[in-house]
């Protein structure tokens, strides 16, 4: 009050930076709270607004104000005193309507200082815990709202305001008393109201019905339900997930929400909430994804939330916005991306791991354990816990100055899938692992496990590529719950190894649900059958963790009628070679090198059980090249894989250009629904040791095989890669669901990557767990917004004269004040 009494007022230009003030007011107040009311007093008919745009990538001041308001859940309310003959269609004026409509605030045109005082004392004063239960703008007919107050006798308030440019009388509300009324507003209230009925409108009007309640909710949209943050913005063309958390409400049976426009027109039917599968989340409820977001008209929307109490409801409405983003294609939505911007985005694409980051001379950088909570796995987990320190130390996780590796643990059953912990410090991981194993709850059977969800979570935890995943499952678990197609998009920098634990009933040792088998193949992983009572596992992990190059992967479904004889490929000058053989009741196994010299089997066995052998062979004692292996089993089929720890690294991909250096890891034509015959190139990058390659051949059948020899015709490189073949072609694997003529995904604005799931974070931010981690002083979905805080060291100064916004302004603002932001904070 002392400060306001010193303000000096002078005439000024009509144009004033109102939006800049709205933006800065929400950033510079050091004690800013959520759910605030931003009161804006102005008489400017020419603010700093630009044309109304529903594309938030334009980043104009109006959109920045909205993003901040959605982040803080604040409502923007304008008290407006315009000069005569103001053009309400101009953006400089219309923006007041747009901002209040988008944030569920109000705009009130006032005629005098007395009217302003009345509004502050009798209208704004009723907003100490305002919870909106009904909102509508520019309506021309009556409407009804079920207010659902918290308690009998609670007041229900309805604020009616005149639509911009309208001069007709405001409608009535049945069964209420008038608390305050002016030239452009009317506030009414009533008790024990089961229905708020607005009648007899003469022109366009706005209304907001609200309660005074500490029972509230937080609702967010996000492009990925695994991410626990978001806002009220729907990106058109992108499948949007939604999450919710309630505060203060009594226990309810269920909840739903549907979407309407600002004029109450229905946009989307109701979705029913379900509890999110991960327990360690902030927003414990979620809804089915909104797939057809293109149906949403660009602009403000509102979510109508209903909490069901055995036949009666509690309701709330929250603001939202449909953002008309563009895809990176001149043909989509009529938006042409500047060529330099398109190049910039493609250069940021992270579709394959750069060779320098590949695990070529060392083991992977991250190790992720996924444990299925089946009671039949307990003995294996006890063995794992007893040897976890030895297993962790196999990869030399610590140097004198730093931690080299990361270790992560996930657990799942048929109800939950949870990331328990992840640590760079191996001692912390070992300690927590030992604590968790005896505390887990185990089930006798899993009806439909959430293993695929764990696989999705594991990929989100893969923040230090490359990674190995160790997935333990019981053979009795034959079904996994289906989730979005995202689960079968497996990164090339992560390898899934499946340990199948015998249940004493299943005789097929390759028994693995088909979706998991697909993940295993696509990631060049392993299937490792275990008995239910293995006493040691450390040697098995010693054979798995260092090897990084697959040279042989063959299987046959009948290895018992006659021995299965096959070729195995062994490279020259490798650091380690591991043969792993799978079969039901393995019997006779023989191995001979490229010259026919016998390689002893038993002497090289590092780990074995009745159905599995892992041989660690010192191949420097033998001749490399094409070896011969023979396998017999008691029944059923068998499989042989050969892997090396190699100093030669290979990265390959698919692209539409022969000179492109940004490639897809899968054949893009498999995503295109169009019958095309476009050429697809396969660029290959090889990081070699000192050996020179004189010949390079490849096989484009499944799997993709690459072979090379030196000038002495010795095998120095052999690699096997698997890739997807979606049949029929399926563009839905792309985030945004759009492909070009080659089948390559067309990414929505601000997204990149082969499948368009990676966000393009602003400069200085880091992509982590699917979200942009912002540097200090920035926020927003992509860290594109700067947080402006006051300089605590700035000395106080004498108040400078303020300028009024117009020379012909109303008598209210002449001699009073021009643009001032009052923030009334509420928190609970």
TrEMBL record:
Transmembrane segments: none annotated. Gene3D superfamilies: Laminin (2.10.25.10). Residues 772-783 form the EGF-like domain. It comes from the Eukaryota. InterPro entries: EGF (IPR000742), Innate_immunity_reg (IPR053295). This is EGF-like domain-containing protein. It comes from Caenorhabditis nigoni. The gene is Cnig_chr_II.g5864.
